[in-house]
Amino acid sequence: MDYEKIFKHIYEELEKIENKGQVADYIPELSMVDPNSFGVQLTTVEGEKYAFGDSNIRFSIQSIAKVFSYVLAYSLVKSDLWDRVGVEPSGTAFNSLVQLENDRGVPRNPFINAGAIVICDILVSELQSPKEEVLSFIHELSGVNSINFNHTIAKSERANGFINFALVNFMKSFGNIHNDIDDVMDLYFNICSIEMSCEELSNSFLFLANNGVVPYSGAKILSSSRTKRANALMQTCGFYDEAGQFTFKVGLPGKSGIGGGIVAVHPMKYCITVWSPPLNSKGNSYKGMLFLEEFTTQTELSIF
Amino acid sequence: MDYEKIFKHIYEELEKIENKGQVADYIPELSMVDPNSFGVQLTTVEGEKYAFGDSNIRFSIQSIAKVFSYVLAYSLVKSDLWDRVGVEPSGTAFNSLVQLENDRGVPRNPFINAGAIVICDILVSELQSPKEEVLSFIHELSGVNSINFNHTIAKSERANGFINFALVNFMKSFGNIHNDIDDVMDLYFNICSIEMSCEELSNSFLFLANNGVVPYSGAKILSSSRTKRANALMQTCGFYDEAGQFTFKVGLPGKSGIGGGIVAVHPMKYCITVWSPPLNSKGNSYKGMLFLEEFTTQTELSIF
Amino acid sequence: MDYEKIFKHIYEELEKIENKGQVADYIPELSMVDPNSFGVQLTTVEGEKYAFGDSNIRFSIQSIAKVFSYVLAYSLVKSDLWDRVGVEPSGTAFNSLVQLENDRGVPRNPFINAGAIVICDILVSELQSPKEEVLSFIHELSGVNSINFNHTIAKSERANGFINFALVNFMKSFGNIHNDIDDVMDLYFNICSIEMSCEELSNSFLFLANNGVVPYSGAKILSSSRTKRANALMQTCGFYDEAGQFTFKVGLPGKSGIGGGIVAVHPMKYCITVWSPPLNSKGNSYKGMLFLEEFTTQTELSIF
Amino acid sequence: MDYEKIFKHIYEELEKIENKGQVADYIPELSMVDPNSFGVQLTTVEGEKYAFGDSNIRFSIQSIAKVFSYVLAYSLVKSDLWDRVGVEPSGTAFNSLVQLENDRGVPRNPFINAGAIVICDILVSELQSPKEEVLSFIHELSGVNSINFNHTIAKSERANGFINFALVNFMKSFGNIHNDIDDVMDLYFNICSIEMSCEELSNSFLFLANNGVVPYSGAKILSSSRTKRANALMQTCGFYDEAGQFTFKVGLPGKSGIGGGIVAVHPMKYCITVWSPPLNSKGNSYKGMLFLEEFTTQTELSIF
């Protein structure tokens, strides 16, 4: 299929509608991003690549990184992961404390903030140098060693991260955080600060479309069964309280970030990444959501 | 693939583990079902059929019928459906009133009780003889005209349906029920009382695996896009607060009922129905869930 | 003290401020009340009476009647009352279902709707002719036999009482309603429809300021200890989620109704009733609250 | 009245019943208290004193200190206090985050943990040396300059105070904490660590029974109106989600602490303090509650 032509066509259609989204502005670094940035990258498991717009510009991947930390933790631990974090959609906003109170400190899934913090706690327990090893893992997935944390963003996130500190303290009161809070949150805020391009993200997520194997290196990251489950988790939990909408309209497992990026995976076929900074009221890229809806509708390439 | 051999193998494996489930007993009719009943039916879009055990015995399909009423309503109305019911997983039990209070009377999705009641209200508005037309619709999908309501069960459900009456009254207080409560609930309780076999269910759901077309009759029930969306909705909302678990472990869109039945759809491939009456703590068939998990693991036939 | 002069003075002060309240309009009968109606009646345990304005005009006492039904039930039953309804302030709106779900069908207190419905269920169990006996009880307290239900209002309440029907069905699902729902709700809606004047209300509540004894008849309604407890309950639970405000600003136990009436009791001293139909956002009389705040501030006659 | 005889009598009655309470054990310092400690002190506004048991032994007053910090803040600020903390009973446990989420970071009242933390934030804003000035204030109220913080307890509280850190971070995310979190929590944990005896507590609270004036020094702490309101607030909010029970059974405004102390005020008459370390399931002194219920029942000295 001529994907680049389709990208261009959908992009032009979206240009005609008003962008009702707002760029995230809770930290200065995110608010300064050009709201008109727009990039797309599709990479197939056979190695074909289709790009559009700002597909090579790095942006703050934010919560998309929660997939990396989750997969890494999932590959390290055996038994106790699901005692400490669930696999159910939350039905509430990404930072809700209500549910955590009802569920006695066990987050609903690894992709809401509380769950991603528990994953960081597991990584702090399991790894010698958690930050370095997370970065190495992403280098391995992407094949690009220059991918790095943005320390300015990590610092800003920490200075404004009161809700996240509320979450981690609350979970620690239930015994669901085993390490020192500062160590866990240092890892958490750094992971959120990673910067990658659409192309790098599509390449890095490709193992999830390929039975757990990185196509270009042959490295086995997860078993087939666990790969299937990681995709299933993105399907039900990847978009906070808009997971149902995304599944309904786009029909692919995926994960969004507050930097305006969305990665979606079509198992056995391809990985696609869109980047458009203005966010809808649920914190997901306004045009990114519309773009992917149009894309799977026009290509009829959803999993359903 | 020799599906019947796989069915037998998994069945024998499950025989070795203790069945921790409990047959539903809130109404006498359900409590009298033989807990050892066990049936499976897989039907492919090409028309192949694979059966095991009690695949031809009819049972109370209960909430599985919510897919029929939803699809019928979805095919009748144009614009206002999604103002009145959402497409997000609920994150709470099937009969929760809490969420309905927060969401001002708009149920999270059409597969929790509140949402299915709104769908019945829409059908009462749209149809001349709602009960008869729902039945005709199921006859069309299944090709079996003897499928019917069980009036004894409908009556028992009504006599014990205090939570459902709480839900409908509460939604009416928000203006989200347009018709007389008794008319809406009469349809609701009757739909829940329908009895079908595994074979009839698999045949009836096959259009969802076939782009919206009933394979043996050629009847177009839904557009491709709406079919995709119906499957997506089953994926995120088909199993109450166990939707994430089912997606995670089984990896197919599906719908369960408190009578112990589960239907799952593999788009473009097949439809599979399992029936085993004892339920787990979430109200889904205990062995049915395990069976489908084993089935998609052994065949590697999930959508993810 | 020259109470009537104080009444006049406060009334004139309140005339100068804008009345931001709104007359209840969910049923036509209440919406037709003259919003400028204003009455006050103070009756002391020694039998002195002080009146102002429309103190002799009857109005719909609505939830104020919940004190009568509660006291009657409290005087009839021995042990099981507090298993079925609590004595804690609700912290939420008068008709919340959320709390009822958390508390497994046991209402927080007898003065929120759910609690008053449980009280009606107890009266239906305990009394031969519940409606007649409740009316007789009020005749005994007030000494006025013409006090009656307003059947038009009771009928309107029933026709619009979807939330109350949600509450009663929900409680019945938890086993906390023992009688037929229609019987219970018929009593409930009739009790809410009772019409009395400020003078009649002050006289009827006077036993609560007098150790449980009706001053003019000598009839012992409640023991001293139970009288104290009834007053305590009005203090913490008499004004829905404004109970704290009323206690804080007025400092007397009391009960409000959506018809714009408020009764307050100063133990061992007096009973005072105010009536002004426009309601604040919490459903309590806008000017009635301000009047009583000024009254206890100027006379320094609060219990604290 | 021969109060000491009454104290002895009630004490002996309570000896006969099993103490179902548990001494607080979340920090080692509290868990080491002798569970059989039992002290009572009643002080009248005329200066009479009645003591029983361990009335002169100091214990950790914990949340009772929230009345001191609240009164001090209330005497310092004019207008903005009630924008930042409410006067309504919470209806939930003392450390709930749920309500705080619903109410956008504004605690229900100054006596739940979140509210007391906001009060500390106000004191940090208003005072040069908050800790010293709070201590001076208590010295002024009690007339005893040796009353002090217990730094070991304050340190233990901080080391285990994850829920409190969750609360303060959560409120800061809503903008309802103006100062540095560490400064606010240092004051909070120190205030909770203050140690006083029953006698010292009764003397210190006596101004609340005396129109805001310290009887023995003549110092005016609060106006009559504000004193009345402080008492009203203790009535509705002094015992977490057992405030209704305490009002219902004891009928006096009061405040409890997790160290097993309870102070109650009878306006214009007296102040009474009881100390018995084992706590009921709501975190209030098991025997202290029963003692005060018996006391006001036998003396008929409640405010209702």
Structure description:
4 copies of one chain form a homotetramer. Chain A is 46% helix and 10% strand. The first copy, chain A, is α+β, with helices and mostly antiparallel strands and 304 residues long. Chain A has a single domain, classed as DD-peptidase/beta-lactamase superfamily (Beta-lactamase, 3-Layer(aba) Sandwich). Chain A has a 5-stranded antiparallel β-sheet with strand order 2-1-7-6-5, with helices on both faces. The longest helix of chain A has 14 residues, at 113-126. The first copy, chain A, is globular. The mean pLDDT of chain A is 94. The A-B interface holds A 86-92, 99, 108-109, 224-225, 227-229, 231-233, 235-237, 241-245, 247-249, 251, 253, 267, 297, 300, 302-304 and B 86-92, 99, 108-109, 224-225, 227-229, 231-233, 235-237, 241-245, 247-249, 251, 253, 267, 297, 300, 302-304.
List its salient traits:
7 strands; alpha+beta; 5-stranded antiparallel β-sheet; 14 helices; homotetramer; Beta-lactamase; 304 residues; two-stranded antiparallel sheet; 46% helix
Q: Please mark out the parts of chain A with pLDDT under 50 across 5 or more consecutive residues, or reply none.
A: none
Strand order of the largest sheet of chain A: 2-1-7-6-5
Largest sheet of chain A: 5 strands, antiparallel
**Based on the structure given, which CATH architecture of chain A is correct?**
3-Layer(aba) Sandwich
Give the largest chain-chain interface (CB within 8 Å). A-B, 37 and 37 residues
The count of strands of chain A amounts to 7
Shape of chain A: globular
Radius of gyration of chain A: 18 Å
Helix content of chain A: 40-55%
Distance between the termini of chain A: 19 Å
CATH class of chain A: Alpha Beta
